[in-house]
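Example 4.3 (complexes with small molecules)
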Amino acid sequence: MTSLTGPGLALPEGFLMGASTSAHQVEGNNVSSDWWAIENRPGTFVAERSGDAADSFHRWPEDMDLLAGLGFNAYRFGIEWARVEPERGQISRAAVAHYRAMVRGALERGLTPVVTLHHFTSPRWFSALGGWASPGSADLFASYARVATEILLPGVRHVATINEPNMIALMHSLIRGAGLAADGATTPADGEHPGVTLDPGSVEPDAGVEQALIRAHRAATAVLKAADPTLQVGWTVANQAYQAEPGAAEAMAAYARPREDVYLEAAREDDWIGVQAYTRHRIGTDGPLPVPEGVPTTLTGWEVYPEALGEAVRHTAGVVGPGVPVLVTENGIATADDEQRIAYTTVALASLASALRDGIDVRGYLHWSALDNYEWGSYRPTFGLIAVDAETFARTPKPSAAWLGSLARAGRIPDAPGSGDPDGRPAAGAARVRAAG
Ligand code: BGC
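Answer. The structure with beta-D-glucopyranose bound is encoded below.
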């Protein structure tokens, strides 16, 4: 990429700039969910429990006030199936009203809501039936989607049915497989992720779950579109920015298909596709390669590789094909060094700008995450633009929040590493990230 010193790339009209959260990771006390059950099971493989999380169940107005005040025009948040339908067929009217208030709250503040119906957590009763693998899972999810229309309409335009179905199919194999099903007590050794100490590289995604998820996505989409054909429905995929080592192109394609591409192909009839990119994965002839010794990694143990965003957007657009716009629904870095967050995001946005310049139809960028939150087993990997005090839940926006908000206000993003913020100043730490990548 070339280095620019100009004012950055002007974003298209209506481009969504904001941040993302998921229900379980910020709400707290999601007691009817399967994840809560796993976290609290004796001998669980989960290192730390979610507990009160960021208490966003009560503090969402403050979260939205902050995001709007920072200059963002969009907020992606989740609604929790386990709260809306805590027992099979029993709808909590209070939960529906709660989430409806959130939708109204976002709209009143000028934040375009991007609403996720399912983000890793399911009601306990659904998992007890066998989860996605059970017969009828698509119908059960579609029934929940029908209830969700009362939350979404009128007002919401963008809905994500299922977050990262590709990770769900892997997690299914991890959690149910290899002796974990019985009591969850086994803790397979893994790299550096301090939360869920399971290695997704070690298992094959479950093909039955893959097909069930695609059926559920389509069933829910049909229900949502029947309620309002103008709803923009899609799902969000964990992009791995796979890179083939010399001679490994075929091995990579075979590895990538069940882990990513099949879910992109399934989005060809959708209204949009969500890209979620953090790092790259190099694939050799014998499979995935570890991050080489000495290469900088994040608090989740992932290689610091911000260019993954542009690569993932290009790959996604290529597989899904023209006519399905891209929304970046997650991108960010787990770091305790907020300067590094700005540096990483500068390069990531520059790679996005380059994809936009090449004519890829990208409609928004939603940073992961709005808040420091529960990273599936640990509070240590901090992805947030806004810090959250674990005792008082006090929110403190970090410099990165003001920086990204200023880009949102200006409607511009950095154009290439070193291109700097809208004032043309070099972004702090950009050089360091380039050197690291
Ligand atoms: C998930 C988030 C998670 C983030 C960082 C994504 O895979 O959707 O829930 O916190 O990545 O690990």
